[in-house]
Amino acid sequence: MHELAWTPPTLQEGLRVLDLIGILAFALSGALLAVRKRFDLFGVLVLGCVTAVGGGAVRDTLTGQTPPLFLRDEIYLWTALLGSGLAFGFGERLARFERTLSVFDSLGLALFAASGAIGAINFGLGPLGVIFVGMLSGVGGGIIRDLIANEVPEVMYRRDQLYATAAAAGAATVWLLFSHLPPFQAQLSGAALVLLVRWISRRGWVRLPVRRLPGERA
Amino acid sequence: MHELAWTPPTLQEGLRVLDLIGILAFALSGALLAVRKRFDLFGVLVLGCVTAVGGGAVRDTLTGQTPPLFLRDEIYLWTALLGSGLAFGFGERLARFERTLSVFDSLGLALFAASGAIGAINFGLGPLGVIFVGMLSGVGGGIIRDLIANEVPEVMYRRDQLYATAAAAGAATVWLLFSHLPPFQAQLSGAALVLLVRWISRRGWVRLPVRRLPGERA
Amino acid sequence: MHELAWTPPTLQEGLRVLDLIGILAFALSGALLAVRKRFDLFGVLVLGCVTAVGGGAVRDTLTGQTPPLFLRDEIYLWTALLGSGLAFGFGERLARFERTLSVFDSLGLALFAASGAIGAINFGLGPLGVIFVGMLSGVGGGIIRDLIANEVPEVMYRRDQLYATAAAAGAATVWLLFSHLPPFQAQLSGAALVLLVRWISRRGWVRLPVRRLPGERA
C-alpha cells in the first residue's frame, strides 16, 4: 500500500513557501523602481535582490545570526533574481497588476515582521525590542530600496496606509501570544494581524496624524 | 540605624543616566527633522528612535557586541520613544529651545564618542581604530538620520562647528589616557574634551578649511 | 654567504600590497567627490576613509569576521587617511590623472571582489552567495560613498562600463576555479578577470540594456 507517496508539506515548509512569495514580491517592487529610474540590467537585478533580502538581513544581523539566512539557503537569492528578471523583462506591463503586487507586498511585510519578532523573542529581547526588530524586518527592504534610489523612504509618508504601523502591530501580537501559543501559531497570528491592519487601512478608515507646522491651516 | 536607606548612585549608574540624556537629545533632533519633513506620526517615532540608537548600534556592531546594548536594555528604546513623542506633541515649540537642544546634542556626542572609544580599546584595536570607532559612534545617529531624510549628512558641512572633529579628538583623548587612568576616568575625560572642543568651536574661534575649486575666489 | 639578506615578498604579502593600492584608490575617489561637494577638511577625510574601507567592511560583516580587517590592521586606515589627505591637498590637480585613478579604482574593485568571494567560500556559501558577497565587496565602498554624498549610486547607471557586472563575473570565476586550483591562484584569476572585463567594457564593445519605458523611442 503506497497511496501516501505524496506527503503533505509540513507547516515549516509551508511558511518557507510564503517567505519566498514575500521575497518575490519585494524583488518585483525593487526592480520595478529601478526600471523607472533607468538603471541598467545589472542595476535592476541588484536593486531587486537587495530589496528582497534586505528585511531578512536586518533581522538576522540584529539577532546575531551569521551568516544571514539568505546566504545560507540559496533558494532565497534565486527567487530574488527571478523576481528582478521578471520585472526587467515585462517592465511596465507588470505595473498594471499593481493591485496584485500590493497584495504580495503586504504578504511579505506580514511574514517578515512576524519572523523578525520570533527571532527577537528567541534572542531574549524584551517587548519593545521585539516590536522594533519585527517592524524593521518588515520595512527594512523597502527602506534600503528607497535609499539607494535616492528617495525619502516611502514608508515614512504612507500615513493613509499604516505600513510600518501594521508591521509593528503584528510584531506586538507575536509578543503577546508567544507565551500562550506554540511559536508557530503565534507567528501566523502576528502575520494575519498585519494583513488585517493593511486591509483596514486600505479602506481608508484610519489615518495617522501629521504634525501641523506654524502658520499652516488645519 | 537606617539613615542610609538611600545610597548615592554609583559612577556607572551616573554614566547610564548621562547616556540616556544623550539618547533623549538625539531622539528629539531626529523627530524634529521628521516633523519638518511632514512624516506621519509613526514616521516621526521611527526616525527619532533610529537616530537615538544609531550611534550605539554602530559602536556595538563594530566592536562585536550582539545584541547591541539598546536591544538588551529596554530603557534605551523607551527613552527614545519618549523623546520622539515629545517632539511630535510639541513640534515647533521645541525648536525655540534650540540652544538647550544643542547642549543635549553635544552631551550625547561626547558620551557616545567616549563609550565607543572604550569599547574599541577593550576590543583590542589600535589608536586609529579607536578614533574611527569613537568618532562613528558619536556621529552615527546623525548620519543615519540625514540619510533617511534624504539630506547630505549635516556633519560633513559643519565646518564652523567642529562636530565630527570634536568626537575624534575625544576618542583620541580616551586612547591617550587609558593606560594612565582607570577606564572610567579616561572615558569621562574624553567626553569632557568633546564638550570643550564643541564650546570653543561655537565661539567661532576655529574653522576647518574647505578646498577651493579652480576658478573660485578666496 | 649572506647574499640573500633580502628575501622576496611572499605571495600573501604581495596581495596585501595590492589590497592597499585598492584602498588608496578608493580613498582618493571618495575624498575627491567630497572636495567637489564642498565638504570641510574633516568631512573629506571621513568620506575618503569610509569609501576606502566600506567594501571590506561589507565583506567581513557578511562573512562573520569581527572585528573587520580594517580595524584589526591599522595600516588600512593609515592608507585611507593618506589617500584622503592627498585628495584634499592636491584637489582638482588630481582630477587630471583621472585615467590613472580609474586604473587604481579597477584594481581595487578586482581585489575586493576576489577576496570577498574567497571569504564567502571559506564561510561555506553556495555559488550565488559567493557571487553576491564578492560583488558587494567590490562595489560596497562606492555605494556608501554615493549614499553619503546624496547621489544615486553611480554603479547603477554605468551601463557602458560593466562595473558591478565585472565584480560579479570575477567572483563567479573564483567560485569556478576554487576546487581546481590553490585558493591563492583562484583569487588572482578572479581579480584578473575583473580587470579584463573592465578593459573590454571601456573599449565600448559591450553595453548593458536599459528597459524602455512605454512611449519611449528605441
TrEMBL record, chains A, B, C:
The chain crosses the membrane at residues 15-34, 41-59, 75-91, 103-123, 129-148, 160-178, 184-201. The keyword Membrane applies. It comes from the Bacteria. It holds the Pfam family Gly_transporter. Residues 17-90, 103-177 form the Glycine transporter domain. It is a multi-pass membrane protein. The keyword Transmembrane helix applies. Keywords: Cell membrane, Membrane, Transmembrane, Transmembrane helix. It is found in: Cell membrane. GO terms for cellular component: plasma membrane. Belongs to the UPF0126 family. PANTHER family: INNER MEMBRANE PROTEIN, UPF0126 INNER MEMBRANE PROTEIN YADS-RELATED. This is Uncharacterized membrane protein YeiH.
